[in-house]
C-alpha cells in the first residue's frame, strides 16, 4: 500500500507536525508513505515540493485573491497528477490545503484514487476561515462574513461563492473524512462534508520520546531553581488573537503576589520573549524549539501547562504535555476538552474568562497532591488513547476501507 500525504509543510505548524508524525509512523510499520508539501524543510527522499508556481499562477492569484477566492489561482495544483509520488500512490491523504494549493483540483486528483481528508481546522467546511468562532453561517452557504480578517484573511467577501465552490468540488470527489477531535467530527457532520464517511482519529505521539523525564533533572538541565512553581506557555506568535495571549496576560497579572513571587514562567515560541515582562513574572524564554527531546524536557520541568487558546482543534502542545505527565489549564473551546478533563488531567475555564483561568492556575499550583494525581492520569490516558501506533493502526484500517469498501466496516477503537 502506497500513501501520499499532501500538506502545507513537513514541519512548520501544528498540522504539518501532525501529518509528518503520521507519515513517520506509517514508515515504521513498513507502509510506503510520501509527502508533497508547499514548504519543505527536511532533505528526505520521501518528501518533495508540491511544484513550482509559474508566472501565470502568480498573476492569476493576484486576481483571485483580490476578489476573495483565495488559492483558486494555483493552476499548477492540477499538475500534481504528473508527479511520480502521485502516480505510485494507492491512497491520497489531504491535510491542510489552504495557502498553497487549489482545492478545485481535488476532483481531478480523486478521479482514480480515493482520498482521506484529515481536518486540522474548519477551513474545509467554511467559506474562507480556519475557525468561525461564534459564526454558524458555514452550515448554510456562508456570506456576509463577520470575520473577514480571520486566517486566511480575505480582501473581498466572496465567502458565499467559495462555499458553493467547495460544495461543487465535494460533489465530484471521492473522499473519506477524518477529524482528530470529537468537536471537529461533529461540525463536519453538520456541514457539507456530511455526504462523506466521517471518522474520529486523534493525533498520535511517539511515547518513547514524549514521556516524563524527571522533574529535578529537567530543571537542572534548563537551569531552573528546584523550589520554584513552573508555569509553561508557548505559541508561534503570542500576538495572534486566536492564541489568547492577552487573556493569559490578564490571568497572570491577577495571581496572588505571594504565589507570583514563587513562580517562574517558562515560555517557548518565536515571539514570546517579552511576555513575562508584561506579566510582571520571572520568565525563562526557550525560543523556538524544534527538538522533540528538548520539548519533552521543558514539559517535564513544568508543574502546569497553560493554553489560553480561543479556538482550536486538538492542540498538539496539550497532547505533548499530557504525555510528559504535566497537567493543563485551558479554556473549554473546540476539541480542548478531549484532552483537558476536569479533575482528571487539568482545569477547564469558561471561554474568555481570564479570572476563571487565573483561578484554575491558583487551584492547581497550590494543591500538590491533586497535581500529582493528574500527572499520573495524563500519562496513562495518553498511553491508552494517543500513541502513534494506535493512530497508525486506525489510519491503515481507513486506507484499506477506501481501497476495498465494505458495508460492514467499523473502525476499531483500541
Q: What do the pLDDT scores average to?
A: 94
Low-confidence residue ranges? none
Q: Would you identify the CATH H-level superfamily of the largest domain?
A: Glycogen Phosphorylase B
Count structural domains. Answer: 2
Distance between the termini: 22 Å
Quaternary state of this entry equals single chain
The portion of residues assigned to helices is: 25-40%
Put the structure in a nutshell.
With 414 residues, the chain is of the alpha/beta class. Helix content is 36%, strand content 15%. The protein has helices at residues 14-28, 55-66, 84-88, 106-109, 159-171, 182-189, 215-222, 245-253, 257-261, 275-279, 292-301, 316-323, 354-365, 368-385, 388-403; strands at 2-9, 32-39, 47-49, 91-94, 115-118, 175-179, 198-200, 229-234, 263-268, 283-285, 304-307, 328-331, 346-349.
Describe the protein in words.
The protein contains 15 helices and 13 strands. Helix content is 36%, strand content 15%. The chain has a seven-stranded parallel beta sheet. The model has no long low-confidence stretch (mean pLDDT 94). By secondary structure, the protein is an alpha/beta fold. It folds into two domains: 219 residues, Glycogen Phosphorylase B (Rossmann fold), CATH 3.40.50; 171 residues, Rossmann fold (3-Layer(aba) Sandwich), CATH 3.40.50.
Amino acid at each position: 500500500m502506497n500513501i501520499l500525504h499532501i500538506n502545507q509543510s513537513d514541519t512548520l505548524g501544528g498540522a504539518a507536525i501532525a501529518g509528518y508524525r503520521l507519515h513517520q509512523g506509517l514508515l515504521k510499520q513498513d507502509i510506503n508513505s510520501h509527502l508533497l508539501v508547499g514548504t519543505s524543510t527536511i532533505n528526505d527522499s520521501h518528501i518533495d515540493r508540491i511544484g513550482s508556481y509559474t508566472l501565470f499562477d502568480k498573476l492569476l492569484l493576484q486576481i483571485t485573491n483580490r476578489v476573495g477566492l483565495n488559492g483558486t489561482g494555483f493552476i499548477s495544483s492540477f499538475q500534481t497528477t504528473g508527479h511520480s509520488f502521485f502516480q505510485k500512490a494507492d491512497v491520497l491523504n489531504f491535510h491542510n490545503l489552504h495557502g498553497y494549493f487549489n482545492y478545485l483540483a481535488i476532483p481531478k486528483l480523486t478521479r482514480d484514487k480515493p482520498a482521506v481528508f484529515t481536518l486540522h481546522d474548519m477551513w474545509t467546511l467554511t467559506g474562507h476561515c480556519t475557525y468561525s468562532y461564534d459564526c454558524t453561517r458555514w452550515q448554510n452557504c456562508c456570506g456576509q462574513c463577520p470575520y473577514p480578517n480571520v486566517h486566511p484573511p480575505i480582501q473581498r467577501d466572496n465567502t458565499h461563492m467559495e462555499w458553493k465552490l467547495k460544495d461543487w468540488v465535494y460533489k465530484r470527489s471521492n473522499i473519506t473524512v477524518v477529524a482528530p477531535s470529537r468537536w471537529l467530527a461533529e461540525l463536519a457532520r453538520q456541514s457539507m462534508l456530511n455526504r462523506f464517511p466521517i471518522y474520529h482519529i486523534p493525533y498520535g505521539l511517539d511515547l518513547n520520546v514524549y514521556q516524563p523525564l524527571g522533574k529535578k533533572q529537567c530543571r537542572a538541565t534548563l537551569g531552573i531553581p528546584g523550589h520554584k512553581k513552573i508555569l509553561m506557555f508557548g505559541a508561534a506568535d503570542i500576538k495572534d488573537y486566536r492564541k489568547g495571549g492577552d487573556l493569559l496576560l490578564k490571568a497572570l497579572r491577577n495571581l496572588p503576589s505571594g504565589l507570583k513571587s514563587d513562580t517562574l514562567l517558562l515560555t517557548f515560541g518565536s515571539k514570546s520573549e517579552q511576555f513575562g515582562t508584561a506579566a510582571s513574572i520571572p520568565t525563562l524564554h526557550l525560543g523556538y524549539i524544534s527538538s522533540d527531546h528538548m520539548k519533552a524536557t521543558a514539559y517535564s520541568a513544568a508543574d502546569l501547562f497553560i493554553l489560553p487558546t480561543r479556538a482550536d482543534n486538538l492542540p498538539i502542545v496539550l497532547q505533548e504535555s499530557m504525555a510528559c505527565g504535566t497537567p493543563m489549564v485551558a479554556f473549554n473551546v473546540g476539541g480542548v476538552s478531549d484532552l483537558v478533563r476536569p479533575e482528571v488531567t487539568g482545569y477547564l475555564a469558561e471561554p474568555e474568562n481570564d479570572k476563571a483561568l487565573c483561578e484554575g492556575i491558583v487551584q492547581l499550583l497550590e494543591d500538590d497532591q491533586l497535581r500529582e494525581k493528574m500527572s499520573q492520569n495524563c500519562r496513562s490516558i495518553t498511553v491508552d488513547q494517543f500513541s502513534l501506533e494506535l493512530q497508525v493502526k486506525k489510519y491503515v484500517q481507513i486506507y484499506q476501507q477506501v481501497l476495498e469498501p465494505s458495508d460492514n466496516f467499523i473502525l476499531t477503537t483500541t
